[in-house]
């Protein structure tokens, strides 16, 4: 059994806030919309990360809440149950950055999204109670942006690239992204936000069309990197990585990925516009943010679904991993993690040692969802997921978890406390019910959705 974290709840909460994670998800091509998972706290935003959701429906837990897993983040945000999935697009929200212009948009009413008047960088809007959201069309005036269009990726550009499909059973949802092959037996590099929240992952090799189930080797939420292992894969052609050449402003580059989640690779040509950039990607409602540093900035048309895909140099070698984009409807400025930094994180994950930000495999899962922080900071349960350890122990919505293995917890520290445990560990959970009665039960933690 892994010993629980012996820091105080305040220290744990501070550590979690120091390494937050957030991701913004977008509307599906078929018009269905979804809600916005997120981790962490909320400094001022710069850009919105792009991860494509193909079929995103309302969560089945009843109210907006944070689904607690044993992660380094605060929790996994679940949206409002009953939210319509018939809205056409996602709304925009105000996002400011190092460029002129901001974006303003309104949450759509149920059934269809309301148009916003963006004139800068756009980010998807959050979900309102029982409401779908809409994406404001508008134009973009952000500087250093591109109007270049994507084309179908060539055979050469497709070598060593995979298309990633994920299922999120706790939310009845699915997502799509891209990945890079690192080894012939199916070690895959992608963004953490591509697979975050997933309960099953399917990976298709672009050049052969072969599809494999995948397991999570590990993730680093602060670096936005995840490593997957394909099941029973062999003879794959790894991507050609360039870890020695110096990248310079003006270099020609091409972003390759599963743009739009269509299942077909596209290639977006552009150039490096800046190096060593630091950005903050935020949740669409203005809360929760993650800062990424030492990024390559490009003016290629990086789109939803490209996340986790390669940024290629003029020789067709991978120099970065596409991870974020600030966008209006016409212009996009993209950002990529350098391949050197990505591989450094891969090595840390492969070492098998967990840290404040690295999770090995799937995180331990209790099966509860906490709502917005209460006035006293208590871990008030908004929902208990059916079939989980919490449900088996008798916890119900309206209960308040007070301690884990006699360590007092709050809504902000519960997730970080559980991060100190492994799947299969038995923990004593103490709580008070709505009537004020105290309870304690031993539960065995199960594997939760990907961190």
UniProtKB/TrEMBL annotation:
Respond yes or no to whether keyword Transmembrane is given for this record: yes
Q: Write out the biased-composition intervals (Low complexity).
A: 140-149
Q: Does the keyword Magnesium apply?
A: no
Residue ranges crossing the lipid bilayer per the database entry = 58-78
Q: Disordered: where is this region?
A: 83-149
Keywords per UniProt: Hydrolase, Membrane, Protease, Transmembrane, Transmembrane helix
SUPFAM superfamilies, alphabetized? PDZ domain-like, Trypsin-like serine proteases
Q: Where is the composition biased (Gly residues)?
A: 123-139
| Boundaries of every PDZ domain copy | 352-417
UniProt-listed InterPro entries: Chloro_Bact_Ser_Proteases, PDZ, PDZ_sf, Peptidase_S1_PA, Peptidase_S1C
Q: Report a single Gene Ontology molecular function.
A: serine-type endopeptidase activity
Q: Name one Pfam family in it.
A: PDZ_2
Please cite one Gene Ontology biological process associated with this protein.
proteolysis
What's the name of the protein? Trypsin-like serine protease
């Amino acid at each position: 059994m892994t010993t629980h974290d012996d820091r105080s709840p305040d220290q744990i909460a501070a550590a979690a806030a120091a390494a937050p994670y957030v991701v913004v998800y977008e509307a599906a091509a078929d018009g269905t919309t979804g809600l916005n998972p997120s981790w962490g706290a909320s400094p001022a935003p710069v850009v919105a990360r792009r991860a494509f959701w193909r079929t995103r429906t309302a969560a089945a837990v009843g109210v907006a809440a944070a689904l607690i897993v044993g992660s380094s983040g605060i929790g996994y945000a679940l949206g409002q149950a009953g939210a319509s999935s018939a809205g056409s697009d996602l709304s925009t929200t105000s996002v400011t950055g190092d460029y002129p212009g901001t974006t303003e948009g309104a949450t759509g009413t149920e059934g269809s999204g309301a148009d916003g008047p963006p004139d800068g960088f756009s980010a998807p809007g959050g979900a309102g109670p029982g409401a779908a959201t809409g994406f404001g069309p508008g134009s973009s005036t952000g500087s250093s942006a591109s109007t270049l269009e994507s084309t179908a990726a060539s055979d050469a550009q497709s070598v060593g690239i995979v298309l990633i499909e994920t299922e999120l059973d706790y939310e009845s949802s699915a997502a799509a992204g891209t990945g890079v092959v690192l080894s012939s037996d199916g070690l895959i590099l992608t963004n953490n936000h591509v697979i975050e929240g997933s309960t099953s992952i399917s990976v298709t090799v672009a050049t052969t069309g072969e599809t494999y189930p995948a397991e999570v080797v590990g993730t680093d939420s602060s670096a936005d990197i995840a490593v997957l292992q394909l099941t029973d894969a062999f003879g794959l052609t790894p991507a050609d990585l360039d870890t020695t050449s110096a990248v310079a402003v003006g270099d020609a580059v091409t972003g390759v990925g599963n743009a739009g989640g269509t299942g077909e690779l596209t290639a977006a040509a552009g150039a490096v516009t800046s190096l060593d950039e630091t950005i903050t990607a935020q949740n669409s409602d203005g809360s929760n943010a993650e800062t990424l540093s030492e990024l390559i900035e490009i003016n290629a048309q990086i789109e939803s679904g490209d996340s986790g895909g390669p940024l290629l140099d003029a020789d067709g070698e991978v120099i970065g991993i596409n991870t974020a984009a600030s966008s209006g409807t016409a212009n996009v400025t993209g950002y990529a993690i350098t391949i050197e930094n990505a591989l450094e994180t891969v090595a840390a994950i492969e070492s098998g040692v967990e840290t404040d930000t690295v999770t090995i495999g799937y995180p331990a899962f209790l099966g509860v969802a906490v709502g917005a922080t209460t006035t006293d900071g208590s871990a008030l349960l908004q929902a208990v997921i059916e079939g989980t350890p919490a449900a088996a122990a008798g916890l119900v919505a309206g209960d308040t978890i007070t301690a884990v293995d006699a360590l007092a917890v709050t809504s902000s520290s519960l997730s970080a406390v559980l991060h100190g445990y492994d799947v299969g560990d038995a923990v004593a959970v103490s709580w008070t019910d709505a009537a004020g009665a105290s309870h304690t039960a031993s539960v065995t933690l199960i594997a939760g959705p990907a961190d």
